[in-house]
Amino acid sequence: MTAKARMFAFADSGCSSFLSHIPDPPVCHSLGQAVALFGVEGPIDVIYPALLERAARRFVNDFPGRILYAVKANPHPAVLRQLHAAGISDFDVASSAEIDLVRACLPEGRLHFMHPVKSRAAIRHALLNGVRHFAFDCAAELAKIREEAGALALDLTLRIALPPTGAALELTGKFGAAEEEAIVLLRQARPFARRLGIAFHVGSQCEHPEAFAKAIAHAAGLVHRAGVAIDRLDVGGGFPVPYPDRRPPALAHYFRTIRRAMRQCGLKEVELLCEPGRALVAEAGSVLLRVDLRKDDALYLNDGSFGALHDAAALGWRYPARRIWRAGRGAVTEDPTPLRPFRLFGPTCDSMDRMDGPFFLPADMAEGDWIEVGHLGAYGAAMRTAFNGFGKGRTVLLRPRDRQPSAAIARHSRPRCQTGDARPFDCAAVAAR
What we know:
The protein is built from 14 helices and 18 strands. The protein is of the alpha/beta class. Strands 1, 2, 11, 12, 13, 14, 15, 16, 17 and 18 form a 10-stranded mixed beta sheet that branches. The protein has an 8-stranded parallel beta sheet with strand order 5-4-3-10-9-8-7-6. The chain is elongated and about 70 Å long.
């Protein structure tokens, strides 16, 4: 064993003892309680543990392979611990900071460095923290990993490029080896990879299950042309969730399509991996926002495009919203006020800090009211910056006192359409407006 390999083996043996406990945020039993306790200045991020557990169980019970949670979607320690408690033990990390975070929260978690481009310092840091699975998408990156790892046995996964898939957010262009290059790289990596894999990403919020089947067939074709055997196939993320203007097929359709494609392409014996982020955490998080000013159809809030509403501004995505607190009156449980469309503006002095929506809220919205914007468990708080001195907020866990089953909590905790009968929120109803 080389000196470098001995150093990494020592680090992997558990001799590092710098890990510390990161406590969970405070527990609230209602959204009104959260506003009353913490609604002084910044936004309040809400985590629904029961919905996290429900989403995790869906993948653990039904996905035909190993699940790697994409930490970037929501790196909050409470989220990581809840997912782990629900059966997810593998984590897709993309930076040294994410490695440190998961190690601090879950020392027993298995880490996979699936970012295709990493600095040498990040590779060394990963190796010192026991990471033995790395992604690459070019010869130069493969060489970096080999040089830094020395004689260590590693699992290597080649990220391949895909043509556009029709996803809501295409992820082509930055990462992925083209077809001819991929064939060469598979042949180069096979002799020294402990386990060799292929990975792809069909795009974020992919609403077409067959996109996964086509990508699997493409990967199988590369393997055949390269004349090598692979041990793993990582189908990435892209599993969708419903939004007011989007009603994707149920996840069961995706899982069945993937299972069928693996069988038809002769990959039944290959280990299957996936990297869900949004599908695990989006519906289990929301943000509570205060109205600081109203100008006709414009509401000025204490968070915006430099915060949890980044995608609402940058991508034009729509999210469910409801009023949960009225100024001078307190918490709102049922609100018969007719709805009207609003534009939202964030707290910064940047004129681009706007979310056109439209967001349907009670017509009498006023300064001091609070709203809940839902489905922001993914790429919500994780996108928040300190621009203009804003960005500081609180996080709470929402645990209703009656301890309803997960399905009931899902119905009653999601934002509702504020109609007279206070029906559970229906994304399709909002889309029709």
